[in-house]
Each structure stands twice: as structure tokens, then as C-alpha cells.
């Protein structure tokens, strides 16, 4: 399955029985599916169906859908002029001008008078209303299809970025695993040196007890468990990316696990090289998590 980002834009236009239909839809990041609508007056009845259509198609995102409906060219209702009334008003205006010197009447002034010009309302049958609603929802499906393609296009780019981050996390994990500071001989030498320094500082210290304490601390600082978990998380991330679909939440949880292990790696480290790897790992994990926030 394809990955989808949560950002995109699409537009679709259609015409039905002399009526022009235009949808504009866009989406941005969101924790769930939230839909904001802008519908023309008189078409509020479509709101439940529009919301349901969006929610069926997408798993996450804040959506805004705007519908514009108008009469196509040549389909506007024709105005009706009450010519008899208009003639009476024109004659009255002329007499007022001759008798009282009133300003001459203008065409737009006469036409603006109530009762002169009328635009008849279109009577919509139930059958016509159902047909129009169906055409509007069909156009919405086209717009949402375009939005889905836009989100998938960005999702493909995100898959490549996330895969690269996972490769980097794996490489750093293997570097930490193979670092010479984790060799038993190196650890033993470091412990011996630390004990020697302490004994030189105070002759009253028990050498055997110091060796035991140092060995305990060395065991506690071992990062084998963190390395194994990081390897497991890397494998899980690759499986999720290969499967696709709405995996944003799962990858976000995985990013938290990566972050936890990198923090522990740094806190348990008793070698500068391991600490440096842990800090580099944290930087990559931060980039990974930032990109994951954009996924559905």
C-alpha cells in the first residue's frame, strides 16, 4: 500500500443541467479526521454526506472543502420587465421635469424601482434536487481522488527519507556494537586503572571490594540490551514502511522507542566514543520523528 502525507490540495469542476460545480479541497496535519466545510446557502443539506465521504477515504488530517455552485453561461434566469408600469413611471418623471424642473429620470434609476424589474425564482423539483446533489457528490469524489494522489506523491518522498533515517540508525547501532571500548579486555584494563588510581589516592581502601564495585558498575553500564532493542526497532520500521497504509501513529510510537534507547545509550556510556555515537543517534531520531509527523 502507498504511504500518504497529510498535506495536499486538489480541485475538481463539473457541470450538471446548466449548473457549474467546483470543489476545492485541501488537508494539513491532524491527529484524526476533522472536516471544515464552506457550502453555498441552500446546500447545507449536503454536509453530513460530505463529511462521511471524507472520513471514509482518509484516516488522518485536517480537511477544508469549499463548494462553489453557479448557473453556467446562458442558463441564468431571464429578468422580466413590467413595461406598462415602466411607461407610466417614465411619463410621470417627464411631467415632473417639465412642471417642477426635476432632474431627468435615468434608465437604471427607473429599473431599480420596485415592481419594474423582476427576476423569477427557479422552482426546483425533488427529482432535480436529488440529481444535483448526486452530481455535486460525484464531483467531490473526483476532488478527493486528486487530493489522495497529491498526498501519496508526498508520501512516496517521505518513505524514501524515513528509509534513509532507519538505515542511518542501523549503521550507528552497528558502530556502537563494534566499538573497541566494549571489548572485555579494554573494559578490564579501564577498571584496573580506575582501581589503581583510587588505591594511590588512599591506602585505606579495600582493593578487592573496589574491584567488585567496579565490575558491578561496568556490568550496569553494558549497552547490549539497548543495541538489541535498536536492531529490533529497525526491523519493525522497515516492515511498516514496506507494508504502507496509515502507519503514521505506529511510526510515531517507534520514533519514541528509538529516542528512549538513544537516551539510555548516552546515559549508560562509559566511553567517549559511545557517547558520541549516542548523540549522533539522537540527532537522526529527531529527524525521523519530525518527518513521521507528516504521515497519515
From TrEMBL:
Tell me, what's a Pfam family for it? YicC-like_C
Q: GO MF terms on file?
A: hydrolase activity; RNA endonuclease activity
- Which residue ranges does the record assign to the Endoribonuclease YicC-like N-terminal domain? 3-159
Alphabetized, the UniProt keywords read: Endonuclease, Hydrolase, Nuclease
Going by the entry's taxonomy, the superkingdom of the source organism is recorded as: Bacteria
Q: Which cofactor does it need?
A: a divalent metal cation
Family per similarity comment? Belongs to the YicC/YloC family.
Q: Which PANTHER family match?
A: UPF0701 PROTEIN YICC
Name of the protein in its database record: TIGR00255 family protein
- The organism of origin for this protein: Mesorhizobium muleiense
Amino acid at each position: 500500500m502507498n504511504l500518504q502525507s497529510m498535506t495536499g490540495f486538489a480541485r475538481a469542476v463539473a457541470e450538471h443541467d446548466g449548473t457549474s460545480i467546483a470543489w476545492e479541497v485541501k488537508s494539513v496535519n491532524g491527529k484524526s479526521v476533522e472536516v471544515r466545510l464552506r457550502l453555498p446557502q441552500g446546500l447545507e443539506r449536503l454536509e453530513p454526506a460530505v463529511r462521511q465521504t471524507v472520513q471514509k477515504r482518509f484516516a488522518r488530517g485536517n480537511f477544508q472543502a469549499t463548494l462553489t455552485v453557479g448557473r453556467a453561461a446562458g442558463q441564468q434566469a431571464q429578468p422580466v420587465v413590467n413595461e406598462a408600469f415602466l411607461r407610466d413611471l417614465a411619463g410621470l418623471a417627464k411631467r415632473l421635469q417639465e412642471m417642477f424642473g426635476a432632474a431627468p429620470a435615468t434608465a437604471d434609476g427607473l429599473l431599480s424601482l420596485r415592481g419594474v424589474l423582476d427576476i423569477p425564482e427557479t422552482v426546483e423539483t425533488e427529482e432535480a434536487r436529488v440529481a444535483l446533489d448526486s452530481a455535486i457528490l460525484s464531483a467531490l469524489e473526483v476532488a478527493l481522488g486528486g487530493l489522495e494522489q497529491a498526498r501519496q506523491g508526498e508520501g512516496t518522498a517521505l518513505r524514501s527519507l524515513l528509509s534513509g533515517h532507519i538505515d542511518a540508525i542501523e549503521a550507528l547501532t552497528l558502530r556502537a556494537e563494534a566499538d573497541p571500548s566494549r571489548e572485555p579486555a579494554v573494559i578490564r584494563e579501564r577498571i584496573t586503572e580506575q582501581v589503581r588510581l583510587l588505591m594511590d589516592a588512599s591506602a585505606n581502601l579495600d582493593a578487592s571490594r573496589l574491584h567488585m564495585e567496579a565490575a558491578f558498575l561496568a556490568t550496569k553500564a553494558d549497552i547490549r540490551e539497548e543495541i538489541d532493542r535498536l536492531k529490533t526497532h529497525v526491523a519493525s520500521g522497515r516492515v511498516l514502511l514496506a507494508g504502507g497504509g496509515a502507519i503514521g501513529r505506529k511510526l510515531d510510537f517507534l520514533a519514541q522507542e528509538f529516542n528512549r534507547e538513544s537516551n539510555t545509550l548516552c546515559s549508560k556510556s562509559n566511553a567517549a566514543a559511545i557517547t558520541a555515537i549516542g548523540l549522533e543517534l539522537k540527532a537522526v531520531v529527531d529527524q525521523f520523528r519530525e518527518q513521521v509527523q507528516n504521515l497519515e
